[in-house]
Input
Amino acid sequence: MRNIQKTALILIGLSLFNFQLFAQKVIEPKDTPAEWSKPYKPFRIAGNLYYVGTYDLACYLITTDKGNILINTGLANSYAIISSNIKQLGFKVSDIKILLTTQAHYDHLGAMADFQQLTHASVMMDKEDVTVAIDGGSSDYALGGKEPSYKPVKTNRLLSDGDLISLGNMKLKMLHHPGHTKGSCSYIFEVKDKNKAYKVLIANMPSIVTDKKFSEIPAYPKIEEDYRSTLQKMKSLSFDIWLSSHASQFDLHKKHQENAAYNPEAFVDRKGYDEALNKLSADFSKKIKQK
Output
């Protein structure tokens, strides 16, 4: 009961704070890679899971008989691209009922507030990223600044590690994978087509986003501990298909060519996942030696 009351107070407080922040000017970084804003043709990944993002900013649509789930929304200018992609696939933007993200950075939450306003969908987020989302990224330990880098996002449900997100016939489990942000997270769930069921992991890969030594980040005293824990937990995950927050992280463009036939097996790639994690582990080991 106390936890419920605490959560309610947090949400009320953040909602009030939100009104003040919407008055601030949003300044999205301008030096972003061209691939982040480049349109990309949407396609069916596996079962009822679709890719609807830009060339590199991965966004995913999960369809159900009770409405749809959108994971990540790219930059602010991704709104038009994602909306168009959803329509190209034959779905309605207005049918989005749940909005999720893998991290509270401007390249994944840039259009979230716009989608929330249009669809009135419920935004669910790792509780450790809620404060950053509500101030538009201003308080992020690495990318924060005086002004918001995206429109502040109001969260309707705070998620903890292992929480289930249910809609229609779908159940997604949220996995708390902090480090890149305090509330970075992944999602694991099952999709099916007429031939096979696939266990899918949408992984937020724990890349290091700060140039500072971990010991020089008072705003995030647990950063080293969180990165270490996340890397260990991610290495032990079991799945069939893995995807990520950026297309480049899981070699999308090597696995799928535009207009290619439906081929879920192209994304069955445990070796690629392990290699990516091993590289990130090496980066982490190098980083902690900077003490």
